[in-house]
Write a structure and sequence with these properties.
Helix content: 40-55%
Strand order of the largest sheet: 1-2
Distance between the termini: 63 Å
Structural class: alpha+beta
Oligomer: single chain
Length: about 70
């Protein structure tokens, strides 16, 4: 994001923001923090994801079984 700042002599200059969102020491760039913050919510959704995959496998197995039984 670019912001416009006025300098001492009144001339406006465009420069990029300094790294406002870096962790102290600058180990991680700022764009990684939202991803790291979403990890707990993603982990809480894993049981639902696994159950949906499991139900899909059962559905596919049942569909192939009924297709084989009718043919």
């Amino acid at each position: 994001m670019i912001r416009s700042e006025s300098t001492r002599d009144g001339v406006r200059s465009n420069r990029k923001h300094p790294r406002l969102h870096t962790i102290k020491g600058g180990e991680f760039p700022g764009f990684c923090l939202p991803l790291v913050a979403q990890i707990p919510s993603f982990l809480s959704q894993l049981p639902l994801l696994f159950s949906l995959v499991f139900l899909n496998k059962i559905h596919l197995a049942a569909a192939s079984y009924t297709a084989a039984a009718t043919s």
